Amino acid sequence: MIRVGIFGATGYAGYELLRWLRRHPEVRVVFAASESSAGASLADVIPGPLDTPLIAPDEAPLGDVDLVFLALPHGAAGKMARRARAAGVRVIDFSADFRLATPESYRRWYGHDHPAPELLPAPYGLPELNRAALRGAMLIANPGCYPTGMLLGVAPLLMAGALTDPLIIVDAKSGVSGAGRAPKQNTHFVEVNENLAPYSIGQVHRHVGEMRQEAQRIARGVAPEIVFTPQLLPVSRGILSTIYLRIPDDWSEDRVRALYREQYADEPFVRVLSAGALATLGHTTDTNVCAISLTLARPGLLIVVSSEDNMVKGAAGQAIQNMNLMFGLDETTGLV
Ligand SMILES: NC(=O)C1=CN([C@@H]2O[C@H](COP(=O)(O)OP(=O)(O)OC[C@H]3O[C@@H](n4cnc5c(N)ncnc54)[C@H](OP(=O)(O)O)[C@@H]3O)[C@@H](O)[C@H]2O)C=CC1
Ligand SMILES: CC(=O)N[C@@H](CCC(=O)OP(=O)(O)O)C(=O)O
């Protein structure tokens, strides 16, 4: 049994993780910690079936666990990672604190100093594209939700060196749980309901740095140019990314699909849809799957649609996939 602790259990990502871990046959949840609700039961904080007792983070028995999941905001996660690693405990971090390889890059995209630079670089936890680095790892940076869908959607072409233009346009729509549980004006029901709102457009969203870093690694050093438009969709969960790419004029849609199917042939959590089918949120809701559809709009212009559940493949499910790799379990254990 892997003995785990969870920090940030009252947040959307932490709660989702607990929900999935209940079905994992090789995990025992030793503690769930909460800064604001220590002493309460989770069901007192989030109405639902999980009545896990919540303890104060300072009282977390790190000596009793093999692994902690950090479902905390950026900055707080890095500090907790330092504490856990000093106690010899493995870490899977949901936040962005360990996704960027250098403290300089982190400061550029997050606007403050890195909370634990001595722990950088950490392996980037996208198993389909970085599996070897995750097996047995002591600290894993779980990817951002938007970069997960984007990177899986473009990787086969980047690996093949098949883009004829470095420009990658990513038009993405996210369910509101992606913004976390703390209320904000733009996530208020009246703002979101029956609306579709872009935010952080241009080159300002912090996920552009993460996408660029990982896309460049996948493309073996060739720097992509990414234009990213995130939008808030009036649904609770799911991300649909529509990605526009330039490919050689003589490539057929079948050729592209064969490339994607070959790349993802052994991947249990990537589904390349058949000709004519388009990926929708419904293809991936409440699963750890990323579904990808491919459409040749005209010679040389490919439209990829990538669908994922931001709470599962974009957060808790991917974290469990990473845990399975970390501890040498079958990667699909506890996941669908
Ligand atoms: N929501 C999503 O779809 C995804 C989220 N993530 C990442 O997962 C992490 C958690 O996100 P999410 O669950 O959405 O966020 P939430 O805001 O829903 O939850 C975060 C939790 O962290 C705790 N917390 C808040 N502020 C602090 C603080 N300053 N110090 C310590 N603990 C704090 C709170 O719990 P308490 O007060 O009870 O301790 C809170 O419930 C973030 O880093 C996010 O970027 C990653 C991918 C997808
Ligand atoms: C809808 C929404 O607000 N989404 C978040 C991304 C959520 C996520 O998974 O990313 P992190 O783990 O990097 O926070 C945002 O745009 O910042």
From TrEMBL:
Belongs to the NAGSA dehydrogenase family. Type 1 subfamily. It is found in: Cytoplasm. Its main location: cytoplasm. Signal peptide: none annotated. It catalyses: N-acetyl-L-glutamate 5-semialdehyde + phosphate + NADP(+) = N-acetyl-L-glutamyl 5-phosphate + NADPH + H(+). Gene3D superfamilies: Dihydrodipicolinate Reductase, domain 2, NAD(P)-binding Rossmann-like Domain. The keyword Cytoplasm applies. Pathway: Amino-acid biosynthesis; L-arginine biosynthesis; N(2)-acetyl-L-ornithine from L-glutamate: step 3/4. The gene is argC. It is an enzyme of class 1 (oxidoreductase). Keywords: Amino-acid biosynthesis, Arginine biosynthesis, Cytoplasm, NADP, Oxidoreductase. Coiled coil: none annotated. Catalyzes the NADPH-dependent reduction of N-acetyl-5-glutamyl phosphate to yield N-acetyl-L-glutamate 5-semialdehyde. SMART domains: Semialdhyde_dh. It comes from Roseiflexus castenholzii (strain DSM 13941 / HLO8). This is N-acetyl-gamma-glutamyl-phosphate reductase. Pfam families: Semialdhyde_dh (PF01118), Semialdhyde_dhC_1 (PF22698). InterPro entries: AGPR, AGPR_AS, AGPR_dimerisation_dom, AGPR_type-1, NAD(P)-bd_dom_sf, Semialdehyde_DH_NAD-bd.
